[in-house]
Design a protein that fits this description.
By secondary structure, the protein is mainly β. It has two domains: 6-153, no CATH class; 158-332, Endonuclease - Pi-scei, Chain A, domain 1 (Beta Complex). Helix content is 11%, strand content 40%. It has four helices and 22 strands. The protein has helices spanning 62-71, 88-97, 112-118, 135-146; strands spanning 6-9, 39-42, 45-48, 51-58, 77-81, 103-107, 127-130, 158-159, 163-183, 191-198, 201-206, 221-226, 230-232, 238-240, 249-254, 258-280, 286-292, 298-300, 306-308, 317-322, 327-328, 331-332. The strands form four sheets. Strands 1-7-6-5-4-3-2 form a seven-stranded mixed sheet.
C-alpha cells in the first residue's frame, strides 16, 4: 500500500465530494475519504469502496500525457503522477476532460503546489492526493475554491449602493506620497476604487482606462491618492493605501454601482503634488480626499460623466460611498470615531 496520503475532491462545478484519509486514522473536518478504507490504490487501479473507478497514470512525459488524455470519457477518475512538479501536463489533461464524466486527481508533494493544482486553467483538478504534512494547506485551498462557484463567475459584478457627494471645497494640497494601485486584471470604462481620508465616506476614483494625447492608458491602474488614504477592500473592510501589498483583494466599483474583487499586483509610490477636495455625503457628514494633480486622475459625477481632478470645482456632485460608521484596523465598530 502507498505511504499515508490523502485524496480530496474540491466541491466545485457541481462535483460530488470525495473524501480523504489521515495517517492517524482520525477523520478531520473537511477531509473526506480514507486511503486503505474507502480508497485503495492497487498498482495502477483506483478503487473506492471496492469498486474500480479509475487509473493511475505517470504523466511526467509526453507518452504518459497521451495515455491520460486517451482515458478521458472512459473512466471516472484519472490519478496523475508527475514525479518532478509540472503544471502543463495538469492543464492539458484538465482541458481534455473538461465537460466530460472523467475527473482528474493529482498527487501533491509540497504546499507550494496546492494552489497551482487547485486553480489550473481557472478550473483546477477535481481532487488532490497529499501527505499529512500539508493537509492544512489543502483545506485552505478547498475553502478558497468554495468561494468561487464557477470560473465564469469570478469576474461577475454584484450590486453596490453608491451615494451622491457634493463638493464643497477644492484647493491645492501640497506635495506628498502618492500611491497607484496596479491590479492583475484589467479595468473597464466606468470602473474604479473607493478611497478617501475618512473610512466612513469615500469617493469613486476612476481607473486609467481613458485615452490621452500625453500618456498611454494603464487599464490595470487606479491612481488612488495620498498614502494615508483609506481604500475599500473586497471584504468591505478598509486598509490604508500605504498598507496594500501584492496579493491583497480590493473592491472594484463601476459607475453604475456594481462591485467585484480584484487582486493587487503591486503598488507604486512616488512624490507628487496633490489637489485637496472636500464633500458632504448623504448623511451630511463632511469628508475629503487628496488626489494627484494630474489630468489622468478622474472622478465620476452623478450623471456618470468623468471629471478630471484638475477641472473639479465646488458644487460638482460625485459618485461615492457613505458607510457612516467608524472603524478600528479597518473593521466597522459601533464606537464613535471622528475623522477630520
Amino acid at each position: 500500500m502507498m505511504d499515508a496520503m490523502f485524496l480530496k475532491q474540491f466541491r466545485f462545478l457541481g462535483c460530488d465530494i470525495v473524501q480523504v484519509w489521515q495517517e492517524n486514522g482520525d477523520r478531520q473536518s473537511g477531509v473526506d475519504l480514507f486511503l486503505g478504507e474507502d480508497l485503495v490504490v492497487d498498482g495502477d487501479a483506483l478503487y473506492i469502496n471496492e469498486i474500480q473507478v479509475g487509473r493511475r497514470v505517470d504523466a511526467s512525459n509526453a507518452s504518459g500525457q497521451g495515455k491520460a488524455r486517451a482515458m478521458a470519457g472512459s473512466v471516472e477518475w484519472i490519478l496523475l503522477e508527475l514525479g518532478e512538479w509540472k503544471m502543463i501536463p495538469i492543464e492539458n489533461i484538465i482541458a481534455a476532460c473538461d465537460g466530460g464524466p472523467t475527473k482528474v486527481a493529482v498527487r501533491i508533494s509540497s504546499p507550494e503546489q496546492v494552489i497551482g493544482a487547485a486553480f489550473a486553467l481557472q478550473m483546477g483538478v477535481d481532487a488532490i492526493l497529499v501527505p499529512d504534512s500539508i493537509i492544512e494547506t489543502a483545506l485552505i485551498a478547498k475553502s478558497q475554491r468554495g468561494e468561487v462557484s464557477t470560473p465564469q463567475e469570478e469576474n461577475l459584478s454584484y450590486p453596490f449602493s453608491l451615494s451622491e457627494l457634493e463638493v464643497i471645497e477644492v484647493k491645492e494640497g501640497g506635495v506628498g506620497d502618492r500611491v497607484c494601485v496596479d491590479l492583475t486584471t484589467l479595468l473597464e470604462l466606468g470602473e474604479g476604487m473607493l478611497v478617501g481620508s475618512s473610512s466612513s465616506s469615500m469617493v469613486l476614483v476612476h481607473g486609467e482606462t481613458i485615452e490621452s494625447e500625453f500618456v498611454p492608458t494603464r487599464p490595470f491602474r487606479v491612481n488612488a491618492g495620498a498614502a494615508h488614504s483609506y481604500i475599500l477592500m473586497a471584504d468591505s473592510t478598509t486598509k490604508y493605501l500605504s498598507e496594500l501589498q501584492m496579493g491583497d483583494q480590493v473592491m472594484v466599483i463601476s459607475s453604475t454601482g456594481l462591485k467585484k474583487s480584484a487582486t493587487v499586483g503591486r503598488t507604486k509610490n512616488e512624490k507628487r503634488p496633490f489637489i485637496l477636495f472636500r464633500w458632504l455625503d448623504k448623511n451630511h457628514n463632511e469628508a475629503g480626499a487628496l488626489l494627484q494633480q494630474a489630468e489622468t486622475v478622474r472622478l465620476v459625477d452623478t450623471d456618470e460623466n468623468l471629471i478630471q481632478i484638475t477641472q473639479l470645482k465646488e458644487g460638482d456632485t460625485l459618485k461615492g460611498w457613505a458607510g457612516g460608521i467608524g472603524r478600528h484596523i479597518g473593521i466597522p465598530i459601533s464606537a464613535t470615531v471622528i475623522e477630520k
